[in-house]
Design goal:
It is a single chain. The protein has 325 residues and is of the alpha/beta class. It has 2 domains: 240 residues, Aldolase class I (TIM Barrel, Alpha-Beta Barrel); 67 residues. It is 42% helix and 13% strand. The protein is globular. The model has no long low-confidence stretch (mean pLDDT 94). Bound molecules: flavin mononucleotide. The site of flavin mononucleotide has 22 residues, from strand 2 and helix 9.
């Protein structure tokens, strides 16, 4: 465990700053992550995680874990996020991750997808704090101190009354940090979030808490700390609409267009067809900040409706006055 390294931003955790990028399945793949990490220095973006890797009844293979991680680059760490309920398979996957040099493991207790719930994984485990503790403890024991294990929860399953119990369960299991997405499973991703639930988790444990939920401006990275006392802050959808949210810099339309164009190019390099790459770009356009590259909602709608992938990318380049090669 690298807890004795005094250069670390927080003892026992490999993060390079206290602002983190959230794992988002279908979006924060190695391509997206590397574009963001390349644009945000480790001093401002402290680390991130892979999208969840679902573990069923046997450990995931090294190649599957490598696929989630993508090419390694120096700088802020990328942890592996696992989700599952089979303790042996989770522990086995965690041990393989250690062998592959993964710097930390996160456990997903928040995924609201039906598939996860049916397998008693993800958010289903919020109904059973003792079970959640067992999952954390078994992975902590499997990695045997080699790397930290963190946990990510929602504030509850269909109410937030037990957020303290859930936080204490993660801590008792040995989690080195707890991320709290302030919504419950039943609140999904609905607008509005109650950060006081994060504050309640903070006051019930000694481990660092990472606050998450609607941190969608640079200023809110500080506000969430001030209001909840959380040590770390995690940005999800806000980073899809503004990959520079961590530094808070103002970015020109040309630079924004370049990001989207580089994203499409990298997806195509990975083998995506133009339509597939354009669909991924649209996922970002849907959240993209308005005002510079995309001036208003009607331009966003126009881009979202464009069915021709090449035309979409040309239109974005035109908006940013970037010449595509
Ligand atoms: C498209 C999408 C995919 C997500 N996938 C994951 C995931 O793989 N693992 C996870 O722990 N959370 C996942 N989440 C939840 C986010 O990490 C985060 O907790 C949530 O979006 C709240 O933060 P925000 O309000 O800043 O977006 C996902 C969210 C979205 C929108």
């Amino acid at each position: 465990m690298p807890s004795l390294d005094s250069s670390l931003i927080y003892p026992g955790l490999p993060f390079t700053s206290r602002d983190l990028l959230a794992p988002m399945e279908g979006v924060t793949d190695p391509v997206f992550r590397s574009l963001v990490l390349a644009r945000q220095s480790p001093e401002v973006l402290g680390g991130t995680y892979t999208e969840f890797l679902r573990v069923l009844d046997r450990p995931r293979q090294p190649i599957e874990i490598e696929r989630m991680l993508g090419p390694r680059s120096p700088g802020a760490p990328v942890g592996l996020q696992l989700m599952g309920a089979d303790l042996g398979a989770l522990g086995g996957s965690a041990r393989i991750a250690v062998e592959l040099g993964v710097p930390l493991i996160d456990l997903n207790f928040g995924c609201p997808a039906k598939g996860a719930l049916r397998g008693c994984a993800g958010a289903a485990q919020l109904k059973d704090p003792a079970g959640l503790e067992r999952v954390v403890a078994s992975v902590v024991s499997a990695v045997d101190g080699a790397i930290p294990v963190t946990a990510k929860i929602r504030a509850g399953y269909d109410h937030a009354d037990d957020v303290e119990d859930l936080a204490r369960a993660a801590e008792s299991g040995g989690a080195a940090m707890l991320t709290v997405h302030a919504r419950t499973r039943s609140e999904g991703y609905s607008p509005g979030v109650d950060w006081s639930r994060i504050a309640r988790a903070v006051s019930s444990v000694a481990i660092p808490v990472c606050g998450n939920g609607d941190v969608n401006t640079h200023a809110k990275l500080q506000t969430i700390r001030d209001e909840t006392g959380c040590a770390f802050a995690m940005v999800g959808r806000g980073a899809l609409g503004n990959p520079w949210i961590f530094s808070g810099e103002t970015v020109s339309a040309a630079e924004q267009a370049r990001f989207l164009s580089d994203y499409a190019d990298a997806m195509r390099h990975e083998g995506a067809e133009i339509l597939g790459a354009a669909a991924r770009v649209k996922q970002l356009v849907k959240h993209w900040m308005l005002g510079t590259l995309i001036p208003d909602e009607s331009t966003r709608l126009e881009l979202m409706r464009e069915k021709d992938g090449a035309a979409l990318l040309t239109r974005i380049a035109d908006l940013g006055e970037v010449v595509r090669g």
